Amino acid sequence: MSNHIAAVRESDLRMAYVEARLAEIERTRRIYLAAEGGMPQRDIARAVHLSQASVHRLVARAKVLGVGGSVEEVVLQRYAGRISTDEMFRALGAAVVWRPRVVDPVDGVLPGSSEEDVEALLDGGFLTEAEVDQILDAHE
Fold first, then answer.
1. pTM of the predicted model, to two decimals?
2. Which of 45, 68, 120, 129 is surrounded by the most beta carbons within 10 Å?
3. DSSP string for residues in 28-80
4. Strand-strand pairing, 108-110 and 102-104
5. Cβ atoms < 10 Å from Cβ of 42
6. Which long-range contacts link 106-110 to residues 24+ away (Cβ below 8 Å)?
7. Number of C-beta neighbours around residue 95 at 10 A
8. Distance between CA atoms of 106 and 128, rounded to whole angstroms?
9. In the structure, what pLDDT confidence band is assigned to residue 94 with cuts at 50, 70 and 90?
10. Which DSSP state fits 128?
11. How high is the mean pLDDT of the chain?
12. Which of 81, 98, 102 shows the shortest CA–CA distance to 135?
């Protein structure tokens, strides 16, 4: 198997991950908004094929973390081609909530912070060193 074929497969796998993660973020957002809109968690659970307990945990976590664009979501949207690099930097500089370590009412202290998210996105190949420097410099 040539390196070129392996590289194409790795790229395809990375894109599959990005699409799945963005879908998961959107599903959590919709579950949260449905719950906040008064829909019973049992009905939500039935609609999304989850247990009521799983819906409860997702709603509780969304209440703490919010449902706005996270650093991860914005970077992955750019990677998927949904937004441009300029749009990514604008979103990261303005609308994105830059979060510190968070205490979740269900799971306790959640790992990570926005700065750690940026570093993980670099390690995952979704950002370059120069982009990381630009993002971190904007939030100092």
1. 0.77
2. 45
3. HHHHHHHHHTT--HHHHHHHHT--HHHHHHHHHHHHHH-SS--HHHHHHHHHT
4. antiparallel
5. 11
6. 106/56, 106/57, 106/60, 106/61, 107/57, 107/61, 110/61, 110/64, 110/65
7. 10
8. 34
9. confident
10. -
11. 83
12. 98
For the cut 60, the answer to whether the pLDDT of residue 96 exceeds it is no
Instruction: State pLDDT tens for residues 29-77.
Output: 999 999 999 999 999 999 999 999 999 998 988 877 777 778 888 999 9
The helix/strand/coil state of 15 is helix
Which residue did the predictor score with more confidence, 89 or 109?
89
Q: Which backbone phi and psi does 56 adopt, to 5 degrees?
A: -60, -45
Nearest C-alpha neighbor of 116 from the set 106, 124, 108, 105: 124
Centre a 10 Å sphere on the Cβ of residue 38 and count the other Cβ atoms it contains.
6
Q: How far is residue 137's CA from residue 106's CA, in Å, rounded to a whole number?
A: 33
What are 110's two structure tokens? Answer: 């959640």
Query: Which helix H or strand E contains 103, and what residues bound it?
Result: strand 102-104
